[in-house]
Design a protein that fits this description.
Rhopdopsin 7-helix transmembrane proteins; two-stranded antiparallel ribbon; 13 helices; 4 strands; globular; prostaglandin E receptor activity; membrane; GPCR_Rhodpsn_7TM; G-protein coupled receptors family 1 profile domain-containing protein
Length: 345
Amino acid sequence: MQEAFPLFTVMESTFQSERHPSTRNFTHGFVLKNETLAQHSYASKVPPEITLPVFMFVGGALGNVIAIIVLSVSRQGRKSSAFYTLVSGLAVTDLLGTCLASPFTIANYLDQNVLNDQRVCEFQSFLLLFFSLAGLSIICAMAAERYLAICCAYTYERWGVDRRFAQKFLLFIYISHIFFCCLPAMGMARSQPQPSGNWCFIDWATEELVAAVYMVVYGVVSALLILGTIVLNLRTVHRALSSAAETQMIALLVMTSVVVLACSAPLVVSRTRPTYDLAAIRIASVNPILNPWIYILFRKSLFYRLLGVFRRRSSTAVPIWRGICTFLGPNPWTELVKCTERRQH
């Protein structure tokens, strides 16, 4: 009886190996073929389109982390500035938006049923509503701060606009925008997957009165922020070119404003053309990728170096151009022909 047990064990193991074929693995022994096939099938299910969202996620997160570090190690005078406090707030906002919203898009490429969950869809819609509006609000606040500092210096000093003032204003933006953007999840508007199926947003084509009112208010607020940013920048630019420090701040503000407005506009236009929704959300996702590199490139030391190189080149180019014009005289084409003929002879 004792010798029958090993024989029975061998027969049972042979029977199990026939039911579950295996392949030889020289590091882990035998591996079942079903597990190997499952791994291959999972790898084949990963779509190649996921490369772009992953790349944009990594680029946005890494760039904003670098920008926050660069802004944190700057000089104490810049740390206490209300303008650079707002710039840091915009970098943190972009970083949070990238880290919170992008994983849902990546997960939807792996599983097309992720956004079919209404709670997930509403949460992603809230994230897009909040971070889009918060970015526009911070940009407008930056433009207003520069306008008050340059064009209304007395009011700027009387209000005590400093780092703490900017921090309180950022806190007000976050709290008010969280409440406003939570209204669709509370029943004021309905969130649904967009035609491309890769992201969720509020339903702009609804005929419900309350939802229509909310969408009109959201659109009007966004348009006013964009218009206010443009007007304040235009009123400030021609007054800020007297000093290099103000020129650097205005250059940073204008470049950031152009990037934010250019990336946000297609998302608004796509509401009238739903077939462009995927391209619009991808363009909007470029915003947090480009913004941090503007902060990095427009650092004070680097900006002064570029400004010095530009001034040196312009100062050497003007005398050269004047000498050319003096040499050529009133008839430059005739003089050029004579010079060519003399060189040929």
